Amino acid sequence: MAGTEATNADDGPARKPRGPVALALLALVAAVLVAGFCALGIWQVQRLAWKTDLIARTEARLAADPVPAPGPADWPGITPARDEYLKVTVTGTLMNTTDTLVQAVTDRGAGFWVMTPMATEEGWTVLVNRGFVPADRREPGYRDYPEGTRTITGLLRLPEPGGAFLRANDPQADRWFSRDVAAIAQARGLGQVAPYFIDAAAGPDAAALPVGGLTVVSFRNHHLQYALTWFGMALGTLLCAGIVWRHEARLRRAAR
Q: pLDDT (tens digit, 9 = 90+) per residue, 53-102?
């Protein structure tokens, strides 16, 4: 008994219950946290639905037969949700002396995308990403230059303005880090071009440069895990609030 009494003495007097104001503030904080975590969880569920639909529509485009590349009349209506990765064909003449090399990293290593303008039979111009060349083969002599009219099949891609996640392009030094259609067109004096570029499909000769068909179609889709994390944090906050409430109730009973 003596040992027990000493331990209780060392622990000091039992804490008094929190007052109504303190409890109200704790309840308010818990409510705000739960509401915030739930809102974030609901937002991730909505993002999950959007991403799932995006992936399904993209896979449908990749599996479909190619369609003619959109002409000037269709340019104002082009959107990422409807047109990104659309399989298209375009017929015209490549402007082989007006290549733009854009730095790239692929499964084949570091190198460049070869962006070449094509003058279409309809009279408008579109940039074609003919494919990849290794860094040690960037000189024109290593690249195949088909002459005359030809038809290219590939994937419609929207421009990549530099400066956000990619390094800013330096047109004056002819150093390109993103496939910015408008900037390339201005630097090359191409005038009005299509507001997209085409990633060309692989050619018949696998050894020829540039190497087409290297487009990687991949979407990060971790929204379900994020949603479960936020909802889990909301539940954890409720459990912590319940433990505090139960402890306060026990202190009040002991005080009475």
A: 877 777 878 788 999 999 999 999 999 888 999 999 999 999 988 899 99
CA separation for the pair 82, 105 (Å, rounded): 27
Q: CA 253 to CA 12: how far, in whole Å?
A: 19
On whether the CB atoms of residues 121 and 93 are closer than 8 A, the answer is no
- Percentages helix, strand, coil for the chain, rounded to the nearest 5? 45, 25, 30
User: For 256, which DSSP code?
Assistant: -
Instruction: Give SS3 for 10.
Output: helix
> What is the Cα–Cα distance from 196 to 97, expressed in whole angstroms?
20
What is the C-alpha separation between 55 and 58, in angstroms, rounded? 5
CB atoms near residue 205 (< 10 Å): 9
Joined together, the tokens standing for residue 144 give: 């195949």
> How far is residue 182's CA from residue 188's CA, in Å, rounded to a whole number?
10
Place of tokens 């050619």: 203
Write the CA distances from 102 to 10, 57, 82, 112, integer angstroms.
73, 28, 26, 5
Check if the beta carbon of residue 75 is closer than 8 Å to that of residue 120. no
